[in-house]
Amino acid sequence: MISGNEYTCQFSRFLTTNLEKKTLKSIKRIAVFTSGGDSPGMNAAIRATVRTATKNGLSVMGIRFGFQGMIDGDFVEMHHHSVSNILQRGGTILKSARSKEFRTLEGRQKAVANLKKHNIDALVAIGGDGTFRGATELYNEFEVPVVGVPGTIDNDLFGTDETIGYDTALNTAMEAIDKIRDTADAHDRLFLVEVMGREAGFIALETGIASGAELILLPEAVKKLEYISETLREVFKVQRRSSLVIVAEGDQTGGALNLAEQLKDEFGQYEMRVSVLGHLQRGGSPSSRDRVLASRLGSAAVETLLNGHSSVMVGVVNQKNILTPMHKTWSEKKSINFELLELAKVIR
Ligand code: F6P
Questions:
Q1: E strand or H helix at 9, and its extent?
Q2: I need a surface site. Which of 48, 67, 173, 299 has the fewest CB within 10 A?
Q3: Which residues are known to be catalytic?
């Protein structure tokens, strides 16, 4: 949750804030793209962007494969019907990529030349922090107006309570862990389950609570091996049955496989097993909550551009649409809810 951030504003107070606002040449044509790791709900965000833009009389292009497609000139015209029947689909119809070439000035110059060639006046960038870093460079170096829409399962962007795809990923992981719990229980086994989150433990924390994990390990709350061993000893002493440990991919233990290596001597009798959930967490049909969030933010991105703002991300905080300067979305750290971590200990 954000508090006291002087840079954020509610839409209703657009004109009275200190957000950067440029007098843009009038916007007639925008382009939308998805970049970085895909997330469920990106299609819903594309749909809302295209439909809000066309309703406002703008023409729209889609850029396929994110920044790489911008460099390669992979542009497609989009209309109202181009986004029919995609709301419920996972992945992204515009495809995604992580572009090394875009990290070079030459790459960015090629991308901007293509934007000019297609008469693109402004961009809607859907993705995570890597996407927003790239978009910020386009704005700073070439003054390309751009608004960001937060799309990543990791939920690690400052300026929005939730990112698009996070809720779906939580539910996918929880369902998978419920199944692992069944077999763990049948065999009295200790399972170490690794969930995604390279830099952040949001998925681990909430799936851990939702699946009744005995221990949750996150990069934000570093635990020594002695603490982990002691906790497991206590759990087995009291319960003498199966146990689940949820490990965030980015945890300092080096992930579930590494942790299993470190624990195998002491807990070998529990037939330890490791399960890395991996990319299945990124796929699937978006939850209703992600569809609503994506629809709301895709539309808000177009309105934000039309209102003359740029280099900002649209987000939802406390049910209100909020703008945050793009650079703050990664330079400010969004905190996990430590109360939930304490709760997990009480109810395990
Ligand atoms: O950024 C989202 C994310 O799913 C991370 O949690 C994960 O570490 C990463 O993407 C995996 O990326 P890739 O698809 O390149 O393997």
A1: strand 9-10
A2: 299
A3: 154
